[in-house]
Amino acid sequence: MAAPRFDLPLIEDDTREFWDGARDGRLLLRHCCSCEEVHYYPRNFCPSCWSDDVDWIEAAGEGSLYTWSTVYQNDLPPFHDQIPYVAAIVELDEGPRMMTKIVDCEPAQLAIGMRLRARFEPLDDEVTIIVFEPA
Asked: Residue 99: beta bridge partners?
C-alpha cells in the first residue's frame, strides 16, 4: 500500500483556473479591478480592499528571492526523498510574494534579491506545482 501524499493540493472550484494554468505552464494571479492590487494566493476577493471584483492575469513568472530556508529533515512522504531542499518566498515582479521551492541551485549560492524564474513541475496528471530556479 502506498504512503499517503502530503504534497498534493485540494483543487476547488475557486482555484481550478490557477491549477489548470500551472498545468499549461502559466502562472496565474488574481488582480483586483477596484484597487488594481495583484494578490497571491488565489481567492475570490481582494485582501487589500475586500472587493469581489477580481479577475485573473498571467504573471511573467519572474521575481526575486525574498527569504529561504534549507530543509534537512522532513519525514513526510514524498519530502523525505527530496531532502535537502530549499523552501523559499519569492517576491514576484507583479508584487505578491509566493511560497515555493528553489531548484537547480546550491543553498550556498542563494542571496536575497537574486533573480529567479518559474518552472512548472508536474506531480501527477492533474497537479503541476510552480518552483523557481535561477534566472
From this structure: 89
Query: How much is the CA Rg of the chain, to the nearest whole Å?
Result: 16
With a threshold of 0.85, does the pTM exceed it? yes
Q: How do residues 24-48 score in pLDDT, each as one tens digit? A: 999 999 999 999 999 999 999 999 9
Please give the backbone phi and psi of residue 21, each rounded to the nearest 5 degrees, phi first: -60, -45
Q: Are strands 54-58 and 62-71 parallel, antiparallel or unpaired?
A: unpaired
Residue 108: left if φ>0, alpha if ψ -120 to 50, beta else—which one? Answer: alpha
DSSP class of residue 80 equals G
Fold of domain 16-134: OB fold (Dihydrolipoamide Acetyltransferase, E2P) (2.40.50)
